[in-house]
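Supplementary notes for students who missed Thursday's class. We covered one full example, reproduced here. Read the sequence, then the structure, then the short commentary at the end.
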Amino acid sequence: MERETSIGKKADEFLQMFRKGEEFTQELLKENERLRFKIAQLEEAIERSGDEAKIRLYEERIKITEDELNSIKERFRQVEEENKDFAAKYVEVEDENNNLANLYVASYQLHSTLDFNEVLRIVLEIVINLIGAEKFAVLLIEEKTNELIPVGTEGISISDIPKVRFGEGIIGTAAKEGESYFSENIHNRGSISTENPIVCIPLKIKEHVIGVIAIYSLLLQKEKFSNVDYELFNLLAGHAATAIFSSRLYTQSERKLTTIQSFLDMLKEKPRR
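Structure (token representation):
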């Protein structure tokens, strides 16, 4: 709702700026008409006057014209600045609309299946396409060992991602505190350290953390994070966490059900003589 309100406000600003441009155009037309009428009056007066009077009238006419021209130039400059501001805001609104549309599609895809592997694949694709990550990993908390274990990666082998103790290092701390981590240098093109990601996003369901997304490098065309990116991180983390948690529960229940069914089938079998 807050994002919809923000977009609504920007749409109102767009309409107000458009109306200002329209009002300015109307004022220019009126001013031009008034100036033309005054010049016509001066010309008529000149025809009825002598040479000295004509000179004075010409000087007055020149001064009036110069003043009007300077006024129009200043107002034109102001409108030009407003138009630049409007164009920038329009582009911003367009980008937000596109990201909202992408996020809606991504959210729909995440919740369209209860297959854990399929959900994980969708999460990886979203992080690549929406965030612009090149190398990253998804780690989930193993409750029994209290460790974060890698379950999916992109651009790096899953065997190269070590298990992380809950509360230790950047990844473990982000999982424990439930707060996102962003490095000051997001374009470190040197050797990648799996223990020191440039971004670490906790996967949370309300305040319960089930894992993290650790990003080690970004695509070359991704120069920096925008305000929209940070909002996408938060929204994506919540949707991804819910989808992953649900699919894991479903998979575990399916396995238990299969095991129970196999046990019942075994009990039903007639004992061999």
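Commentary. The two ends are 70 Å apart (CA to CA). The domain at 129-259 is CATH 3.30.450.40 (Beta-Lactamase). If anything here is unclear, bring it to office hours.
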